[in-house]
Amino acid sequence: MAHVATEYVCFIDSDIVVEHGTLTRLRREFLDPAVAVAGPRILGLPLSPAAGSVAHYEAARSSLDLGSGPGRVAPATRVSYLPSAVLMARVAALGGGFDETMHVAEDVDLVWRVVAGGWSVRYVPQCSVRHDHRVEAMAWLERKAFYGTGADQLARRHGDLVAPLRLDPLCATAVGALVAQRRWSVPVAVIAAGAHLGLMAARAPSPQQRLATGANLTAMTLVATGWQFAGAATRHHWPLAAIAALVSRRARRGIVVAALAEGIADYRRVRPDLDPATYLLLHRADDLAYGLGVWAGALRGRSIRALLPVWTRPWRRGQASPTKTPQKEKTHGTQVV
To answer: Where is the Glycosyltransferase 2-like domain (predicted)?
Structure first.
């Protein structure tokens, strides 16, 4: 990039096949002077008849494929990063460009720095490229773990933006009580959920709609919190879940339910060309490898910041809104690439 003399630059990895019209379509985004970076959808190469299960899984669930929905890119949103496999950018907005000390997650870091600088970053799935995915089992698992190691570096540079969980304290208490499966679980959950409903209802703009608004927001936040708990137990925090499962029958039961429920829901959303059992096994292996990478990065960096949740404060927010999980559109929390 230091040698680029043009107004725009496009980074393209050597294992990418650019489809016709993609670069022209990306260039169109920069007619908006606020746009600094734009990226296309990254799909796999067409599958051969001999393609194995991992190839079919990656075709449906690659970490590089951010889905069919266009959108603004920013931390803790539906599209929280863009892979640097293909990026078009306005040179003046990039500053020093990629941090060359980072060998993983450098693309996430660049996008987040650009967004923090006040620029707009866009995901443009209307155009696409093809990527030569890793489809050998060990190479695939190693790459997933490698992605996970970047969480520690991002946490050092961007703090809570990389947090794997964003939790409302009251709803987290309610869901946590139910997960504990004790005699006091239901009363505690009811009290915590009722307190959240009261807070949301008190801030509804219309007195006539307070109860309905509060109930709707509380229900949405409880569901989102439950999915975050399931994702944490099977992805970022699975080592802790595994330890709990060794000593507690309730924990084992809860982890099995979480692993099955999250996997089945993901299968229904992705609709892969795989049978449910094979997809579920590969999905769990994907999460285990990524989580192992996150913990390896944390141990290497001697910091658990990338594993800590962020606690929201609903009583201090300007508007009542449900707690949302940033991935698993692709992943729970931020999927580091």
So the answer is: 8-207
pLDDT in tens, 55-107: 999 999 999 999 999 999 999 899 999 999 999 999 999 988 999 999 999 99
Please enumerate in sequence order all residues whose Cβ is within 8 A of that of 44, keeping only pairs 6 or more positions apart, or say none. 55, 58, 59, 62, 65, 130, 131, 132, 133
Distance in angstroms (rounded) separating the CA atoms of residues 76 and 164: 10
The amino acid at 85: A
Strands of the chain (E only): list them.
8-12, 16-18, 35-44, 71-72, 86-90, 120-131, 166-167, 310-311
- Statement: the pTM of the whole predicted model exceeds 0.85: yes
Find out whether 299 and 264 touch, Cβ atoms under 8 Å: no
Residue 137 has pLDDT above 90, yes or no: yes
Q: SS3 string of 231-251?
A: HHHHCCCHHHHHHHHHHCHHH
Per-residue model confidence as pLDDT tens digits over 148-181:
999 999 999 999 999 999 999 999 999 999 999 9
Q: What is the rounded CA–CA span in Å between residue 70 and residue 78?
A: 10
3-state DSSP assignment of residue 117 = coil
Q: How far is residue 70's CA from residue 58's CA, in Å, rounded to a whole number?
A: 20
Integer Cα distance of 92 and 11 in angstroms: 15
Domains observed in the chain:
8-135 (3.90.550.10), 166-316 (no CATH)
Structure-block tokens of residue 14 = 């050597």
DSSP 8-class letter at 103: S
* Of 143, 84, 101, 108, nearest in space to 292 by CA: 143
